[in-house]
Amino acid sequence: MYDPTVARLTYRALLGRRRALILGALPLLLIAISLAVRGLAGADDQTAADVLGGLALATMVPIIGVIAGTGAIGPEIDDGSVVYLLSKPIKRPTIIYTKLIVAIAVTMVFSAVPTLIAGFVLNGNGQQVAVAYTVAALVASIAYAALFLLLGTISRHAVVFGLVYALVWEALFGSLVPGARTLSVQQWALAVAQKVSGGDLVTSDVSLTTATVLLAVVTVLATWYAGQKLRSLTLAGEE
Amino acid sequence: MAAEQSMQTPATAPGDTRIHNIGYRSYDGPRLGRGYARLSLYSQSLRGSYGLGRSVKSKVLPMLLFVVMCVPAAIMVAVAVATKANDLPVDYTRYAIVMQAVISLYVASQAPTSVSRDLRFKTVPLYFSRPIETADYVRAKYAALASALFILTAAPLLVLYVGALLAKLDFTDQTKGFAQGLVSVALLSLLFAGIGLVIASVTPRRGFGIAAVIAVLTISYGAVSTLQAIADVQGNGDAGTWIGLFSPITLIDGVQSAFLGASSAFPGGVGPDNAEGVVFVLFTLGLIAASYGLLVRRYKKVGL
After folding, report:
1. pLDDT of B84-111, one tens digit each?
2. Residues A21-79 pLDDT 10s
3. CB contact under 8 A, A63 and B219
4. Range of the domain at B218
5. Number of structural domains found in chain B
6. Range of the domain at A62
7. Residues of B in contact with A160 (CB under 8 A)
8. Cβ-defined contact of A22 to B239 (cutoff 8 Å)
9. Looking at the partner chain, which of B108, B211, B226 has a beta carbon nearest the beta carbon of A51?
10. Counting beta carbons within 10 angstroms of the beta carbon of residue A182, is it exposed (0 to 12), middle (13 to 18) or buried (19 or more)?
11. ipTM of this complex > 0.90?
12. CA–CA separation, A202 vs A214, rounded Å?
């Protein structure tokens, strides 16, 4: 199910040349902001939870997920070089599965690790805030990577749709319409984080059971459907 | 190739050979020249920003964002007319700040379509084989995206203004607010277009361009508003004001609350005063000039 060559190529496509800079700039900024906040406000659990929840989990993780998830397959389909990969005797679901693993790994490294560091900088993991948000980032990485990888195989405008989902649906609708929160990767990840922290600093609108079931269903379904999409892929010209 | 040339060189001694004249004539009519080429590039880019002259698929997103931008304005006008309110529910200057997510998405999606495809399909050298120069290309693209953004941000203001006049709100008051709003969105269009194009012109991949632009715009806003909120809680309002310099949307907010009579969206509602506002204006103009300079520098060398 896992093809090392495809994995190596995908890593190079994601992290090669200047792309690693975009991915690396965001985590660095998060850590810089945490340092600034710590300097300005001192160690405070509520502030730490606000920064990690508002900046790391709500903004940084989805954006890195979009870049890694769609970047793992989108550009190849876009410039047509995916046919060279598809013409090799490798199963299409294997290609998707391998690319998913790579996308998850990249998203986790570039989002969960800085979240943990930022959490320790902000309040030294008081009330388990840092660990809770790191777990949330890890869980969200899996779902986001699967979801955005699927988008990458469906649409040429995958990045835009991914961003619309992450920024408009989760952030804007989520804050206005309570029902939208049930269908948000961010809230599912928060439900898991709530269980980890045990305190009342990290809260979610979704119960843990619903969240885990939905997370698993979304990840598996998205991966399966992406494999199906790749089996019947048609290459279109540039608009 | 080399062998061919060495064979041909002795044969083409001067006077020995003659190309048969089959009657082609060179064009000696009037040529439209550099200005016309620049204008064409501008109008094509502007049309392209709304998907006009492109496929149906590429019309969907810009048109959708345009509608999303205008619908809340129409609803506000309807509410103001129905309830016979004395004032519009939102200031002209505040509207763009509230709708910043839509504006950011528009810049992020259209800046790369404007410049990245030229890089990817290596059409930039073809442009420069025409009478236009680097500065012409940059000016045309910059002006086109800024105009597209101005249309996007000014249209809802126009809806608000017309609606306000139909609702018989105070004419001078509304006109003043409308004019201030227009100045503010013009500045915002220039700033956002500059930032978007500079980032998009670095990558030939449209997807990465979109992600990079949106990352710069939203992360900088997220970071700045977080820091401002914390500075406000700490009772350090001054620091909060200066932090506003570091994200495009708070920069515009600062400029308009200092000079254009807007109420600030900064935490605590205290924007920069006039002296601080001068710094905000200079910073904004500096950023616009810097993005123009960077673009010109970027296209000195064609290709990647």
Report:
1. 877 888 889 889 988 888 899 999 999 9
2. 778 888 888 898 888 888 877 777 888 888 888 888 888 898 899 889 988 888 888 77
3. yes
4. 34-298
5. 1
6. 4-231
7. 61, 105, 108-109, 210
8. no
9. B226
10. middle
11. no
12. 19
